[in-house]
Amino acid sequence: MSASNQCRRCLLQEMADENDYYQSVVRYRAALPAKKRTPDAEYAARLACCKACDALNAGTCMQCGCYVEMRAARLDMHCPKEGQW
Questions:
Q1: Which whole-number Å values give the CA distances from 42 to 5, 37, 77, in the listed order?
Q2: Comparing C-alpha atoms, which of 60, 57, 51, 59 is closest to residue 84?
């Protein structure tokens, strides 16, 4: 996707053909100890919340600058928008 056609509401996993950042997410999540890793169902729910958010821009949270898939992977991390997750 060119910069002019950048997907605002896409996650890195949806842009995997265009970059290898998502493989970093996969490796990061796999390396997290189970007690720190967000369970799969909760992880999916967090990402669904991010996908519905106006602050998502090409996998990045415009509230805090993180890659949402990295932040959502950790149980001890929370959405910067209060009350989201």
A1: 30, 10, 12
A2: 51
DSSP state letter for 67: B
Give just the sign of the alpha carbon dihedral 23, 6, 50, 14: negative
Neighbours of 37 (CB within 10 A): 17
Round the average pLDDT of the chain to a whole number and report it. Answer: 88
Identity of the residue numbered 70: M
Measured CA to CA, the distance from residue 48 to residue 42 in angstroms comes to 10
- Residues 6 or more apart whose Cβ sits within 8 Å of residue 4: none
What are the residue ranges in the chain where pLDDT is below 50?
1-4
